[in-house]
Amino acid sequence: MKNKSYVLPELKYGYEELAPHMSAEQLKIHHQKHHQAYVTAANAILEKFEAARKDNLALDYKAESKALSFNVGGHVLHSLYWQNMIPAAKGGGKISGRIEEKIKADFGSFERFKAEFTATALSVEGSGWGTLIYYPETGRLMCAQIEKHNQAFAPGMNVLLALDVFEHAYYIDYKNDRAKFIEAFWSIVDWAEVEKRLPEA
Fold first, then answer.
1. Per-residue pLDDT tens for 72-93?
2. Is 0.90 topped by the overall pTM?
3. Would you list the DSSP string of 113-167?
């Protein structure tokens, strides 16, 4: 059976549908250029491994493994990020159900969670992600940072919500105002999708 390659996922909305919170230009460049770059790089590294095995050649395994982790991590997190969002007109930003109950139980209130998540995303140094994570061993929700796709990615944790705070995610629309971008994000979060990733208690 032939091995598969990584593929850029299609979006569940049109490029213009997240406006005014995210412009069509911002979304299209982020999806077609930046995310595609991670997919292309990951596939190229896999081809290097296959070629080296076929011809019994050595590789710089430390460098290639690190690069593969970075690019696959970028692909996985971006794929989740696109699914996290939905146009405001189609229910973006409206929370209810089990995810709302769990957030209130663990953080005390939705506003407290929002403040913690915002502070987490805002304080990422350089490039990285603000995330809402479920830890199965403790049954807790926590806000956490993921640096450069693949650093501080704790094994066994479930990423429920991810916000890309690389400048490429918002610079066209918000320049260097990350706080304004994060505030806009709350209007297009697809909470029904986030709830699907919450394991049954």
1. 999 999 999 999 999 999 999 9
2. yes
3. HHHHHHHHHHT--SSEEEEEEEETTTTEEEEEEEETTTBT--TT-EEEEEEE-SG
